[in-house]
Each structure stands twice: as structure tokens, then as C-alpha cells.
Amino acid sequence: MLQRWFAGRVGEEASPEIGDVTSPSANGMSSETLLFDANWRAAGELKSGSFVARVEPDPDDVPVFPSYDLESQYRVLELVAANSDVPVPRVRWLEKSGDALGSPFFVMDRVDGRVPPDLLPYTMGSWLLEASPDERQRLQDATVGILASLHSIALADVDASFLEFDLPGATPLRRHLENQRRYFDFVKEGRSFPIIDRTFEWLEANWPEDEGESVISWGDSRIGNVMYDGFEPVAVLDWEMAAIGPREIDLGWLIFLHIFFQDITEKAGMAGMPDFLEREPVIAEYERRTGYRPRNMDFYEMYAAQRHAIVMSRVFARSVHFDGAVWPDEPESVIYHREVMLDMLDGKFRSRG
Q: Does the annotation count 220 as an active-site position?
């Protein structure tokens, strides 16, 4: 079916041929990813390409998110490519029907590079762990540079309205949080997660007096969603969580996701990378590149911890569906960073650096 669909895009007269279709073994579970190579003729010349298809997941397979707007992902990749130097894969085609693969999908060029792994976490063993301090610093600064470049896109100059949440709330951050409330309602399915309830209360009690300028937020701004050539980013991936919101949403997520992996590593008795992606060096590099000093980072790191807890709860539900896992009597025990969240809520945790 993919062969027939591809012929419809490049033309039967192009004599297209598609090789084996495979799935990557690396990070990511929010949507299905297919890899394929293709050959075809154009203007009398033989063309070839390596492509990636992002396919909307089957709703019966306990998807991570309640809905998948592939058109928005396609559009944000186009927008970012046209208005910044953020390295994103070139998007080729958007297929809104399920005729070819059973679900909608879009196709983009495949980029070669390496990704810091999630399993086992890069903090436990990886090319990044084995890198020199200078090399890690290069990667860290270059990754912060991705956010600086993305956030430099002036909303007044582009049409990013499709990234706005059509939800109650007077500001983009208020609407962003409302989206999280509804996502949590979708995830919990009648189970109790008191620690997540507490974070909603904490966020309300510690709301920033000034939310600052809103920008295009990548949403899933972690190094596991970046491909690197050496220690330089060559592809920024996974835009399912993109939205409009304050700059600090992305910075808090970038910092906290490393805290998450580092905490797991230290609990396993390993050193990990305690001096990587610390708060102060990250915000200092961001300020150096943008002239803007990030603020209220306690709030945004807590928000990141909460958002990740909700995602982790849904990921466990997938394990129940696919692997036969059983929900424990205390459902929130599936949140690996629960102890960190408790320390944050009780004022005992301060971000490193």
C-alpha cells in the first residue's frame, strides 16, 4: 500500500520503488515511526531518498496522548524550518486519510545522527556519558541554542494560531495548564494520584506574577529528542507537545528531564552526570544567546515534573495493555520521580547549579 501511495505522490511514470519498511529501535512511543528508502525517476534522472513516516497510533493501543494532530506537527515543522535555523527534518507529504497505512501519516526526510538513549538512560552508559567534559558542554550549549533560536521566531510575523489551545484561560500559560488538567483526567481513568493533585495546588499557589512573553514552545525539549552529529544538533524531533507558551516551559523541561534520569542513575548506585544541564549554566547560556534572563524556574521545573508524571502514568497504562503489567494498589508509585516531586513540594529540593 505504501508503494501505491508513493507512486501517487511522484507519479506512476516515475517508476517508483520502495525498499524494506522498518521501525527504529531508539527513543519514542507516542506514535508509530516507519523508515523506508525509495527510488524514482524525475526529469530523466534517477532519484533516491531515505524517509521517515510518522503514523497516527491506533486508539485501541492505549496511545500516550488523547489525540494526534499530525497536520499541526507537519505545519510546525514547516514553520520552524522557514523562520529559524533550528535543524528540523524536511517535511515532504501529509496524508490525512487512512487508506494507505490504516491511519493518517506524514513523511519527512530521514536524517543521520545519534541520539542520547532513554533505555538504558544515557546517564548509565552511552556515548554522551563517555564524552569529555568539553564535549558535553558543547552539546549542552548547542541544545540550549536550539531553544534560543526557536523562541526567537516572532509570533507577530508568522501564523502560529494552530498551536494555541482553544481552552478557558486568560493567558497562554493558563490555557497550557488547563490542557494538562484535561490530559490528567484522560490519563487517570478513575485512579488516584494524590501527588499530581498536590502539584496542581502548588502551581496555583506559586503562579508567576509576570508570565513574560509567549513563544512557540517545542514542548518535549529534551536531548533524547535531538539527533547529533558529533555533539552538534542535526535534527530536532517529536513535536507532538508543541504549543504557545512562556519560554521557561521548554527550559524547565530540558533541565528537569535530566534531573529525572540522573535521579534514577544515582538510586542505582552510579555516578551518572551530576554536572550536566544544571539550572544556572543553562539559563546563563540562554541569556547569553537571547538577552533574556529566564525566571520563576522553580515553578517551571515543578510544572515539568508534573507533566512528566502524567506522561509516565500513561506509559505504565501502555505496559498494562501490551506487557501484562498490573496496576499497584498505590497507582502513583509508578511515577519514578515521585520522591523528587515530594521534596519539591515540601521545599527540600533545589535544582542543581
A: yes
